[in-house]
Design brief:
379 residues, mainly alpha, 3-stranded mixed beta sheet, two-stranded antiparallel ribbon, 16 helices, 5 strands, 63% helix
Length: 379
């Protein structure tokens, strides 16, 4: 397609794909700042901590928006020819930055990747740059990007393509994937699509070491973010490892493999996963349960999501709560109710009495012991 060049979209692509090895990258958005009028982006490198921050100013964002949308409309209106070239690819990247949930644009971006990949002399380099670009968007400070269901689903597809077209070791690839999950979740609480993709990756990855790394990252994240329900749900999922759950992810994985089925003359690097004998970790579930119980007591946890995770793990593993723990918790609840009154529930949620709501400590204890009371009735 003949058309104008795309300096802003191309510049964006160049910035997003030139990370240094081992550096932690974050894309941020900011209002225009005095003294930076002539700069499209501000790049801050911290070599000591190996971090890179790329700031996209509002005026730059608007220029990318205008350029990409104008080119896209021109592309759609070109009735003579709608060929795919690098300009179309750069346009889709600018469009994804500003409007990530446009399904037509996402399909066009995928077509661009497949077309350019088929003609690439260095498929590993091309896919690595695409990976870095998508990871930049998924770990950015903009909610519409970080929580985009479409971008996270494209991230799954990208894993398939990289596995098919390159010989990158699973452990090497997993470092990028796991850091993306963690960084994205750190920026936005309860990032459902991020953690849903982490569960998918945990299920289909064939390496026990990578599975262990995902579990350790998830557990560590949960213990630092007590109220993040999506991460706690993922911890319960990983620890339980229900076959009926991960069969859905295996089915999706096979569907994507068939979608990108290659010509017989092309070498395929993808490992085969046996659905009848899925790879399971020996996580030491009883030890995890003890850690969670200690965590609940040490922090006086007042969020049901932690108790729900604990309940799920215990029920799936058929672990019975130790008698001394049950007696200890019942004694705690009894003493608290003797002092503060009976804990009442509405829609299975503990209620803080109006007379106690001005006291933050007592209010939190009503929630803490209320959830313990509900947990003991359901376990």
């Amino acid at each position: 397609m003949d058309g104008p060049s795309l300096p802003y979209c191309k510049n964006l692509y160049d910035y997003l794909t030139r990370w240094e090895d081992g550096s932690s990258f974050k894309l941020e958005f900011s209002p225009d700042q005095p003294g930076f009028e002539d700069q499209l982006f501000f790049l801050n490198k911290d070599t000591q901590n190996q971090t890179i921050e790329l700031v996209c100013f509002k005026s730059t964002y608007l220029k990318v928006f205008t350029e990409s949308h104008k080119y896209f409309n021109q592309y759609l209106g070109d009735t003579n020819e709608q060929s795919i070239d690098w300009n179309v690819y750069y346009m889709t990247i600018g469009y994804l930055l500003t409007t990530p949930e446009n399904k037509m644009l996402l399909n066009l971006h995928e077509d661009c990747v497949l077309k350019l990949l088929s003609h690439s002399t260095d498929k590993k380099d091309f896919l690595t740059r695409e990976l870095l670009m998508i990871q930049s968007l998924l770990t950015s400070t903009r909610n519409s990007l970080n929580k985009s269901s479409s971008l996270w689903y494209w991230y799954r597809k990208l894993y398939i393509l990289i596995k098919q077209h390159t010989s990158i070791l699973e452990e090497t690839l997993s470092k990028l994937w796991i850091s993306t999950f963690k960084n994205s979740a750190e920026l936005h609480k309860c990032n459902y699509y991020c953690w849903n993709t982490a569960r998918w990756f945990f299920d289909i990855v064939p390496s026990l070491k990578v599975k262990t790394d995902i579990f350790e990252m998830t557990k560590d994240f949960c213990f630092k973010h007590v109220s993040d329900c999506s991460s706690w749900d993922t911890l319960g999922y990983i620890t339980s490892q229900h076959l009926e759950n991960n069969m859905f992810n295996f089915t999706n994985y096979e569907f994507l493999l068939r979608r990108y089925k290659l010509d017989g003359n092309v070498k395929v690097y993808t490992d085969t996963i046996n659905l009848s004998t899925p790879i399971a970790l020996d996580l030491g579930v009883e030890s995890i349960v003890r850690d969670l119980i200690l965590y609940v007591d040490s922090l006086s946890v007042k969020d049901w999501t932690v108790f729900l995770c604990l309940s799920r793990i215990m029920n799936s593993s058929k672990i019975v709560l130790a008698d001394h723990i049950r007696r200890y918790w019942l004694d705690q609840i009894s003493k608290f109710e003797d002092q503060q009154g009976i804990i009442s529930f509405k829609n299975m949620n503990p209620i803080i009495p109006l007379s106690k709501r001005d006291d933050l400590t007592i209010s939190n204890l009503f929630l803490h012991y209320g959830w313990k009371k509900r947990f003991l009735e359901t376990i």
